[in-house]
Protein backbone atom coordinates (compact mmCIF):
# COMPACT_ATOMS: atom_id res chain seq x y z
CA UNK A 1 0.00 0.00 0.00
CA UNK A 2 1.18 3.50 -0.71
CA UNK A 3 0.86 6.23 1.82
CA UNK A 4 1.00 9.63 0.17
CA UNK A 5 -1.89 11.52 1.64
CA UNK A 6 -2.77 15.18 1.93
CA UNK A 7 -5.69 17.24 3.24
CA UNK A 8 -6.57 18.23 -0.33
CA UNK A 9 -7.30 14.62 -1.17
CA UNK A 10 -10.22 14.73 1.27
CA UNK A 11 -11.86 17.64 -0.59
CA UNK A 12 -14.36 15.51 -2.47
CA UNK A 13 -14.37 12.00 -1.06
CA UNK A 14 -16.78 9.74 -2.91
CA UNK A 15 -17.99 6.63 -1.08
CA UNK A 16 -19.98 3.86 -2.74
CA UNK A 17 -20.65 0.17 -3.10
CA UNK A 18 -22.63 -1.74 -5.68
CA UNK A 19 -25.73 -1.39 -3.45
CA UNK A 20 -25.66 2.39 -3.94
CA UNK A 21 -25.88 2.47 -7.73
CA UNK A 22 -28.73 1.44 -9.99
CA UNK A 23 -26.49 1.78 -13.05
CA UNK A 24 -23.25 -0.09 -13.70
CA UNK A 25 -21.02 0.49 -10.69
CA UNK A 26 -17.81 1.11 -12.64
CA UNK A 27 -19.55 3.45 -15.04
CA UNK A 28 -20.74 5.52 -12.07
CA UNK A 29 -17.29 5.45 -10.48
CA UNK A 30 -15.58 6.47 -13.71
CA UNK A 31 -17.98 9.36 -14.30
CA UNK A 32 -17.59 10.54 -10.69
CA UNK A 33 -13.82 10.55 -11.13
CA UNK A 34 -14.16 12.46 -14.39
CA UNK A 35 -16.24 15.02 -12.50
CA UNK A 36 -13.41 15.64 -10.05
CA UNK A 37 -13.66 13.25 -7.10
CA UNK A 38 -10.39 13.38 -5.11
CA UNK A 39 -10.63 10.15 -3.08
CA UNK A 40 -12.73 7.00 -3.28
CA UNK A 41 -13.89 4.49 -0.68
CA UNK A 42 -15.37 1.11 -1.60
CA UNK A 43 -18.13 0.46 0.92
CA UNK A 44 -19.90 -2.82 0.17
CA UNK A 45 -22.56 -3.03 2.83
CA UNK A 46 -25.98 -4.51 3.46
CA UNK A 47 -28.14 -7.20 1.88
CA UNK A 48 -27.80 -5.87 -1.64
CA UNK A 49 -24.01 -5.77 -1.57
CA UNK A 50 -21.67 -8.35 -3.09
CA UNK A 51 -21.25 -11.10 -0.49
CA UNK A 52 -18.56 -13.54 -1.62
CA UNK A 53 -14.98 -12.88 -0.67
CA UNK A 54 -13.79 -13.66 -4.16
CA UNK A 55 -16.21 -11.26 -5.81
CA UNK A 56 -15.35 -8.54 -3.31
CA UNK A 57 -11.68 -8.93 -4.11
CA UNK A 58 -12.43 -8.74 -7.82
CA UNK A 59 -14.49 -5.60 -7.26
CA UNK A 60 -11.76 -4.00 -5.12
CA UNK A 61 -9.00 -4.77 -7.61
CA UNK A 62 -11.01 -3.28 -10.46
CA UNK A 63 -12.01 -0.18 -8.45
CA UNK A 64 -8.38 0.32 -7.47
CA UNK A 65 -7.36 0.12 -11.10
CA UNK A 66 -9.97 2.71 -12.13
CA UNK A 67 -8.91 5.08 -9.32
CA UNK A 68 -5.25 4.73 -10.20
CA UNK A 69 -6.00 5.93 -13.74
CA UNK A 70 -7.14 9.19 -12.14
CA UNK A 71 -4.36 9.18 -9.52
CA UNK A 72 -7.03 9.11 -6.82
CA UNK A 73 -6.44 7.15 -3.58
CA UNK A 74 -8.46 3.97 -3.22
CA UNK A 75 -9.71 3.20 0.30
CA UNK A 76 -11.52 0.09 1.55
CA UNK A 77 -14.26 0.34 4.19
CA UNK A 78 -14.19 -1.99 7.25
CA UNK A 79 -12.35 -4.98 5.80
CA UNK A 80 -8.63 -4.78 6.64
CA UNK A 81 -7.89 -8.08 4.94
CA UNK A 82 -9.50 -6.91 1.71
CA UNK A 83 -7.56 -3.64 1.94
CA UNK A 84 -4.26 -5.54 2.19
CA UNK A 85 -5.13 -8.17 -0.44
CA UNK A 86 -6.24 -5.59 -2.98
CA UNK A 87 -3.26 -3.33 -2.35
CA UNK A 88 -5.55 -0.44 -1.41
CA UNK A 89 -4.08 2.91 -0.43
CA UNK A 90 -5.92 2.77 2.86
CA UNK A 91 -8.66 1.55 5.16
CA UNK A 92 -11.59 3.28 6.84
CA UNK A 93 -13.03 1.87 10.08
CA UNK A 94 -16.05 2.85 12.15
CA UNK A 95 -16.44 2.68 15.91
CA UNK A 96 -18.11 -0.76 15.68
CA UNK A 97 -15.41 -2.21 13.45
CA UNK A 98 -11.87 -3.33 14.06
CA UNK A 99 -10.16 -1.00 16.56
CA UNK A 100 -8.14 1.74 14.91
CA UNK A 101 -4.91 0.68 16.65
CA UNK A 102 -5.39 -2.91 15.40
CA UNK A 103 -6.23 -1.65 11.93
CA UNK A 104 -3.01 0.37 11.88
CA UNK A 105 -0.98 -2.74 12.76
CA UNK A 106 -2.56 -4.72 9.91
CA UNK A 107 -2.30 -2.13 7.15
CA UNK A 108 1.12 -0.80 8.14
CA UNK A 109 2.44 2.67 8.75
CA UNK A 110 2.41 3.92 5.17
CA UNK A 111 -1.25 3.21 4.39
CA UNK A 112 -3.96 5.80 5.00
CA UNK A 113 -6.13 5.09 8.05
CA UNK A 114 -9.51 6.80 8.39
CA UNK A 115 -11.74 6.49 11.45
CA UNK A 116 -15.37 7.55 11.95
CA UNK A 117 -15.82 9.77 14.99
CA UNK A 118 -19.14 10.97 16.36
CA UNK A 119 -17.87 12.65 19.51
CA UNK A 120 -14.85 14.74 20.45
CA UNK A 121 -13.64 11.83 22.62
CA UNK A 122 -13.82 9.40 19.69
CA UNK A 123 -11.88 11.84 17.52
CA UNK A 124 -9.19 12.22 20.21
CA UNK A 125 -8.92 8.43 20.52
CA UNK A 126 -8.58 8.11 16.76
CA UNK A 127 -5.71 10.61 16.77
CA UNK A 128 -4.06 8.61 19.56
CA UNK A 129 -4.46 5.37 17.60
CA UNK A 130 -2.70 6.84 14.57
CA UNK A 131 -5.59 7.83 12.31
CA UNK A 132 -4.67 9.98 9.30
CA UNK A 133 -8.13 11.54 9.19
CA UNK A 134 -11.49 11.33 10.92
CA UNK A 135 -14.89 11.20 9.25
CA UNK A 136 -17.50 13.15 11.22
CA UNK A 137 -21.27 12.95 10.90
CA UNK A 138 -24.05 12.66 10.09
CA UNK A 139 -24.03 16.35 9.22
CA UNK A 140 -27.59 16.15 7.91
CA UNK A 141 -30.33 13.51 7.55
CA UNK A 142 -29.15 10.55 5.50
CA UNK A 143 -30.84 7.55 3.88
CA UNK A 144 -27.60 5.78 3.01
CA UNK A 145 -26.80 4.42 6.47
CA UNK A 146 -29.49 2.45 8.25
CA UNK A 147 -28.01 2.77 11.74
CA UNK A 148 -27.01 6.42 11.41
CA UNK A 149 -26.92 8.36 14.67
CA UNK A 150 -28.69 11.68 15.31
CA UNK A 151 -27.61 14.57 13.11
CA UNK A 152 -24.75 16.62 14.58
CA UNK A 153 -24.31 19.35 11.94
CA UNK A 154 -21.12 21.24 11.09
CA UNK A 155 -21.03 22.57 14.69
CA UNK A 156 -19.58 19.23 15.78
CA UNK A 157 -16.55 19.84 13.58
CA UNK A 158 -16.09 23.31 15.05
CA UNK A 159 -16.24 21.79 18.53
CA UNK A 160 -13.60 19.23 17.56
CA UNK A 161 -11.31 21.95 16.20
CA UNK A 162 -11.83 24.05 19.34
CA UNK A 163 -10.90 21.08 21.48
CA UNK A 164 -7.59 20.72 19.64
CA UNK A 165 -8.26 17.99 17.07
CA UNK A 166 -5.96 19.06 14.28
CA UNK A 167 -5.72 16.08 11.96
CA UNK A 168 -7.66 16.23 8.67
CA UNK A 169 -11.45 16.04 9.08
CA UNK A 170 -13.96 15.02 6.44
CA UNK A 171 -17.69 15.64 6.94
CA UNK A 172 -20.30 13.00 6.06
CA UNK A 173 -24.03 12.50 5.91
CA UNK A 174 -26.73 13.98 3.68
CA UNK A 175 -24.34 16.42 2.06
CA UNK A 176 -25.50 18.36 -1.02
CA UNK A 177 -23.45 20.95 -2.95
CA UNK A 178 -25.17 23.86 -1.17
CA UNK A 179 -23.89 22.60 2.21
CA UNK A 180 -20.26 22.68 1.17
CA UNK A 181 -19.37 26.24 2.20
CA UNK A 182 -20.81 25.91 5.73
CA UNK A 183 -18.97 22.63 6.22
CA UNK A 184 -15.62 24.06 5.13
CA UNK A 185 -16.19 27.10 7.36
CA UNK A 186 -16.73 24.76 10.31
CA UNK A 187 -13.13 23.58 10.00
CA UNK A 188 -13.47 20.50 7.78
CA UNK A 189 -10.95 19.74 5.05
CA UNK A 190 -13.52 18.18 2.80
CA UNK A 191 -16.83 16.43 2.30
CA UNK A 192 -17.71 12.81 1.73
CA UNK A 193 -20.72 11.88 -0.31
CA UNK A 194 -22.62 8.73 -1.22
CA UNK A 195 -26.09 9.33 -2.66
CA UNK A 196 -25.73 12.84 -4.08
CA UNK A 197 -23.20 11.38 -6.53
CA UNK A 198 -24.03 7.64 -6.67
CA UNK A 199 -27.77 8.13 -7.28
CA UNK A 200 -27.40 11.09 -9.58
CA UNK A 201 -28.42 10.73 -13.22
CA UNK A 202 -25.06 12.28 -14.01
CA UNK A 203 -22.39 11.43 -11.44
CA UNK A 204 -19.98 13.52 -13.51
CA UNK A 205 -22.12 16.63 -13.21
CA UNK A 206 -22.89 15.95 -9.54
CA UNK A 207 -19.18 15.68 -8.74
CA UNK A 208 -18.42 18.80 -10.80
CA UNK A 209 -21.17 20.71 -8.92
CA UNK A 210 -19.50 19.84 -5.63
CA UNK A 211 -16.10 20.79 -7.03
CA UNK A 212 -17.37 24.21 -8.05
CA UNK A 213 -18.35 24.82 -4.38
CA UNK A 214 -14.96 23.74 -3.09
CA UNK A 215 -12.98 26.57 -4.62
N1 LIG B 1 -21.80 7.52 7.86
C1 LIG B 1 -22.45 8.53 8.42
S1 LIG B 1 -23.66 9.12 7.40
C2 LIG B 1 -23.26 8.01 6.19
C3 LIG B 1 -22.22 7.21 6.61
C4 LIG B 1 -21.61 6.12 5.86
C5 LIG B 1 -23.98 7.93 4.89
C6 LIG B 1 -23.69 9.07 3.97
O1 LIG B 1 -24.37 8.93 2.76
P1 LIG B 1 -25.13 10.13 2.02
O2 LIG B 1 -25.94 9.46 0.93
O3 LIG B 1 -24.08 11.03 1.44
O4 LIG B 1 -26.01 10.79 3.03
MG1 LIG C 1 -17.70 0.48 9.18
What do these coordinates show?
By secondary structure, the chain is α/β, with parallel strands linked by helices. It has a single domain, classed as Alpha-Beta Barrel (TIM Barrel). The protein has helices spanning 25-35, 53-69, 80-86, 100-107, 120-128, 155-162, 180-185, 195-198, 203-213; strands spanning 12-16, 39-42, 74-77, 90-93, 112-117, 133-136, 169-172, 190-193. An 8-stranded parallel beta barrel has the order 1-2-3-4-5-6-7-8, surrounded by 5 helices. Helix 1 (25-35) runs parallel beside helix 2 (53-69), helix 1 runs parallel beside helix 9 (203-213) and helix 2 (53-69) crosses helix 3 (80-86). 4-methyl-5-hydroxyethylthiazole phosphate binds next to helix 8. 2-[(2R,5Z)-2-carboxy-4-methylthiazol-5(2H)-ylidene]ethyl phosphate binds at residues 142-144, 174, 194-195. Residues 12-197 form the Thiamine phosphate synthase/TenI domain. One of its GO terms (cellular component) is cytoplasm.
Amino acid sequence: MTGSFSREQLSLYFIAGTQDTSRDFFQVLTEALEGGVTMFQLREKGEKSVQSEEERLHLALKAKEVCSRFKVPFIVNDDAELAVKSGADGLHVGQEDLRASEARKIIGSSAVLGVSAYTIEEAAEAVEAGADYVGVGPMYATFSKQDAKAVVGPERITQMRESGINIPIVAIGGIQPEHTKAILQSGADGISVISAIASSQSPRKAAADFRSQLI
